[in-house]
Specification:
single chain; 370 residues; alpha/beta; Spore Coat Polysaccharide Biosynthesis Protein SpsA, Chain A; 2 domains; 15 helices; binds guanosine-5'-triphosphate; binds magnesium ion; alpha-1,2-mannosyltransferase activity; Glyco_trans_15; Nucleotide-diphossugar_trans; Glycosyl transferase
Length: 370
Amino acid sequence: MSRFTLELGFIKPQYRLWALIATTVSLLLLTMHSFSPMKMSPPPYAKTPSVYDPVRACFVILVRNSELEGIRSTILQIEQTFNSKFHYPYVFLNDDYFTDEFIERTKILTTSPVSYGKLDSQMWGYPSFINTTYAAEQREDMASKGVPYGSSESYRHMCRFQSGFFFRHRLLDDYDYYWRLEPDVGFHCDIDYDVFRFMRDNDKKYGFTMTFTEYMDTVPTLWNTVKEFKSRYPEVVKNWPSKKDSLEQFVTSDDGETYNSCHFWSNFEIAALDLWRSNDYLKLFNYLDRSGGFFYERWGDAPVHSIAAAMMLRKDQFHFFNDIGYTHTGYTHCPVDPSFRDKCNCNPETNFDYDPGLSCYPVYKRVIQS
Ligand SMILES: Nc1nc2c(ncn2[C@@H]2O[C@H](COP(=O)(O)OP(=O)(O)OP(=O)(O)O)[C@@H](O)[C@H]2O)c(=O)[nH]1
Ligand SMILES: [Mg+2]
């Protein structure tokens, strides 16, 4: 006879059935309570932002008033594929004041918090050490050689801002992670987990979807300037991972002699702000800035970020967001695995990952696996 039947033995026979039912229900409730979701730790990438451990993250968008329709298209897609589930805020930045129309027609697209900021002349302007006459001559020279954006002054301010300043804007002070967005890009796949939580929980610092080769005419002295920095600041370099543990071989194919032009396409970035806010990166950026290459050449933020991250981070701190289908200026990353066909609206045949001569993804894959 079991202990349970023994205990029932003390109860009058006519009440035993009721006692049995009451005991069973109590046991059931007790069991349900101990396994209730409230008591369990949340699933790793829960669909709602965690109230107990939120990730301090935002979208950051540098954009002009004239790009209103393009940025509306981007936001509609990011809301549909990701942010209507996670509600991360948007930070809009501009070298000009945003118009009322821009503000009204962007904030209506989301229920998330939005903020709008204007850049000051330190973040968007010539530093005192730049010879603006020489810079103008260099722009003409590059234009005559047909270098993309070679003649553009604002493009250079943009690249310098994205390289050295966006993460120091006061509207980003409350955040640890960002997702960079641009007007007129495409997002093709449903993202049903919190990418920022993924970054944080896995100690990832830099996430990308596409890699590209750079026009070397835009960065002729960038690599040598980085090399100069490394030899002048050994106390900074000693904080960085070894060549083997870093991603350095992604950006150089001759053991550091020259830049191989590979970079992460920075129009899409999901990354940790502390990477750029670190003293090491700020020292490197200031050194690059003082050399004048943002204005006398046309250094892009993509090669600057990529070279810095490749040297400063461990390989395992990078993440390839294969599951985020993305298009920028006609180039698409479309996940090819059949499991994505129900989640994505892109054609896997358009996938750029292995585009010969243009994509550096094969280089990334080889270095990551080495
Ligand atoms: N406010 C402002 N934003 C700018 C300016 N120039 C570029 N941007 C923004 O900076 C980002 C990068 O500029 P793009 O012109 O797209 O540069 P890109 O991606 O290298 O070039 P494309 O291949 O033409 O797209 C985009 O979000 C632009 O909206 C500018 O002069 N003012
Ligand atoms: Mg662009």
